[in-house]
Structures are given as C-alpha cells and as structure tokens.
Amino acid sequence: MDLSQLIQNFDIGGRLVTVMPTGNGNVNDTYLAIFRNTFEEYQVIMQRINSKVFPDPSLIMKNLREVTAHVHAKLDKDSGRADRVWQMPQIVKTRDGNDFFIDDEGAVWRVITKIPSATAFDETQSLEHARECGTVLGYFHWLLSDIEENKIADPLPGFHITPLYLSRYDEVIENVPEAKERLFSSMEARRMSAFVEKRREFSTVLQKALLCGELEKRMMHGDPKVNNIMIDDFTGKGSAMIDLDTISPGLVHYDFGDAIRSICNPAGEEEPDLRKVVLDFELCEAFCSGYLEQAEMFMSDIDKVYLFDSVRLITFELGLRFFRDYLAGNVYFKTTYSDQNLHRARVQFKLCESIEVRENMMRKLFCG
Ligand code: GN1
Ligand code: MG
C-alpha cells in the first residue's frame, strides 16, 4: 500500500513532506504525516483501523464526533477553572466528505489531527509525569461524566468484563486442538494456567459490585495507558487523552486500574527481564494524588473501596487476554515474534503478583 498516495484521499492543505510509522499500538497501524505550504505546517495521524477488532468504523467515528462536541462545549464553560489548554484530536474528512476511506483491499483508513507540541511517552518519566497522568485521567472522567449515555454506542461489547475473557479462554482450550497442545507442551504455560485458576473467583469482583448496585456505570476511556496521555513539551503538563475509540459506558474503575497498571510499571509491557517488572508504589502515590484531586468531584466512598480490586483485576485481565491470544495462535494482538503474547502475559501476571503483595498499602492509599 502506497501511503503517500493513500493520504491524498484526505482533505489536508499543503504538500506532503513525509509519512512514517509512529507509536506502537497493539491493534491499529498508525502513521504520522506532515504537510507544508509556504506559511504553515499540518501534522496529522493516519490509521488503518483493525476491522477484526472494530468491525463498524462509522460507529467509532460517530462516537469520536459526539465526545469531541461534548468536551469542547464543557471546556468552554470551565475555562475559568482550568490551569491549562486541554486539547482533543479532530477528524480530518476525506475529499468527498467522509469520516474514513476504504482502499482497494477493503482496509479502512482514517485521519485525525495530531496534538501539537506534546509527547506520548511509552514509559513513565518521573513522579511529576505520573501525577500529571492522574490529573489528566481524573479530569477526562469529569469531562465525560455528564455526556448522555445514548449518544455513545458501545464499540466493543463486553470489552472490560473479565469473566467474559475467562469464558473465551476456556473455549479456546476446549475447542482449538493447537491451544491444548501449546498449553500442555510447555511447563511455563501450565504454570500460567494455574495462575489463572487461582484467580477465577476473584474475576467477578467488579461485575458483582455493579449488579448489586454498589457501583454504577459512567463513561470510561477504555485504554488509558501511559502512551495515550499527551504531555505538553513546554510546560510538562498533561494536555490531552488520545486513542478515544474505546470510550463507552462502563466502570471508571477499569480505567483507574488500567492507568496504574501501565503508569506504575516503569519496565513496560515488553520487558524481557521479569525481575524489573514491579508496581512502583511511589509512582502509584503520585498518580493517585493527581487522580483523586479531580475525582473528588464525582467519586463516592464505596467507589474508592473497589479501587484496589480494579488495579489487580485489570492487570490479571490483560495478562489473561495475552495468554489466550497466544494459545489461540495470535489472532488479536499484533506480534513481531512467535512467543510475544506469551511473554506479554508473563509480564502482566508478574505485575499482578507485585500488586497483590502491596494490597495493604495500596488500599490505605486509595481509601485514606
Ligand atoms: C491494546 O492498541 P493499543 O495498544 O492501543 C488493547 C488494550 C490493551 C493494550 C495493551 C482495543 O491497545 O485493551 O490494554 O493493547 N486495545 C484493544 O497494550 O484491545
Ligand atoms: Mg488503544
């Protein structure tokens, strides 16, 4: 696919200078394109949407439009209180006025504006960075807290329902002979399956709290990992949340947990040396101070009681998703080497253990 030709289907001023891969998402393919004319430069993000994961691109584009309109209006009203200029990516239309372009091979492409003068780091840089990430996520939750639920369609039904991932894991072992083989031919895989079994009962903790009315659904981001939070290059302050395709009504707890899972493991999701994979409590404190300052506006005491479980659960869930994908033959997450999903699962399970041994101190931190 010739990317420089493909991008000409979108309505962008100026002439193309370059188009190159950027970021390292596990689902969509992402490119940065730069256009210039005599006086201006435009930087945009072009993405091939993984249609196995997001079968209906018009739905995620409509969600993005609704979210942007809501946040824009609310930011205008809140500008007196704000200590920074918050930004949102904007949809760039195709030359014939559509939100996305379908190429000859049926692949779906879309372009959005790049948040200027800001960086999405793959690893947490400092305590200040962790705190900023907390502030950004808390503020983002507040910004979306009053969007009408029926305006946002669920892009991935069941996306963060941990027991559902357990059923899918069971199904693949039951029905795919290669999965059974992979599981029984390696001691490591068997050890990981024992790890999963020990947490089967725990996996329903948030769904139960939702069912009995202790927790309620709000709008969540769905994927608030460290590199989805943009930090302003000049002020060091968070200026945007990106990767908005998974926004949907759900438990903000999953976001809180996912952010800590990602931000407080400075070794990252691909670290080969498992000894380095730990939950850094100082980073966790810093993140939490930023988040809770914003979340006081909408979080109740019972919400806080479930924050520890949410960190443990989402880490377990992601490990389980990677492990299931390895057993299934790498059908969901992109990989560059054969056992990558197995290794990613190991990292998350190691992190999950590290969270479990810090339970007391983390509960104290979250509940005060
Ligand atoms: C995927 O594509 P990316 O990297 O933004 C995944 C998230 C995982 C994340 C782990 C739609 O996100 O749920 O937490 O990988 N997104 C989807 O890195 O499945
Ligand atoms: Mg994502």
CATH topology call of the largest domain? Aminoglycoside 3'-phosphotransferase, Chain: A, domain 2
Radius of gyration: 21 Å
Question: Which spans have pLDDT < 50 for at least 5 consecutive residues?
Answer: none
Looking at the overall shape, the CATH architecture of the largest domain is Alpha-Beta Complex
Helical amount among residues, as a percent range?
A: 40-55%
User: Structural class, please?
Assistant: alpha+beta
Main CATH class of the largest domain? Alpha Beta
Q: How many domains make up the 3D coordinates?
A: 2
Tell me about this structure:
- The protein is an alpha+beta fold and 368 residues long.
- The protein has two domains: 3-114, Phosphorylase Kinase, domain 1 (2-Layer Sandwich); 127-367, Aminoglycoside phosphotransferase (APH), C-terminal lobe (Aminoglycoside 3'-phosphotransferase, Chain: A, domain 2, Alpha-Beta Complex).
- Helix content is 45%, strand content 14%.
- The protein contains 13 helices and eleven strands.
- Strands 1, 2, 3, 4, 5 and 6 form a six-stranded antiparallel β-sheet that branches. It has a three-stranded antiparallel β-sheet with strand order 7-9-10, covered by helices on one side. A two-stranded antiparallel sheet has the order 8-11.
- A hairpin with a 4-residue loop joins β2 and β3 (41-49).
- The longest helix is centred in the last third of the chain and has 22 residues, at 307-328.
- The radius of gyration is 21 Å and the shape is globular.
- The mean pLDDT is 95.
- 2-acetamido-2-deoxy-1-O-phosphono-alpha-D-glucopyranose (GN1) is lined by residues 25-27, 53, 223, 225, 243, 246, 269, 318.
- 2-acetamido-2-deoxy-1-O-phosphono-alpha-D-glucopyranose is lined by residues 25-27, 53, 223, 225, 243, 246, 269, 318.
